[in-house]
Amino acid sequence: MSRIFRNGLVVALVVIILDQLTKLWAVAALSYATPVAVLPGFNFTLLYNKGAAFSFLGDAGGWQRW
Asked: For strand 42-44 and strand 36-39, is the pairing parallel, antiparallel, or unpaired?
């Protein structure tokens, strides 16, 4: 396995772990649909995406959701 490929896998793993940790933090620390001001014009808001990107096909009941 080349060094570049191995480093890429390490970076990908770190990104996935950080993503999951921030999601766990958001669920534990934020209330649903209640904005929390971080900076002027920048808020954290807990919302759930029920579809694909930007809730595309979120109201579809079939295979499109998965």
From this structure: antiparallel
DSSP 22-55: HHHHHHHH--BT--EEEETTEEE-B----SSGGG
CA 35 to chain centroid, in Å, comes to 17
The three-state secondary structure class of 37 is strand
pTM: 0.71
Block residue for tokens 């096909």: 57
Q: Among all chains, which residue has been given the structure tokens 């649903």? A: 32
If DSSP codes are grouped into helix, strand and coil, which group holds residue 39? strand
pLDDT at residue 51 greater than cutoff 90: no
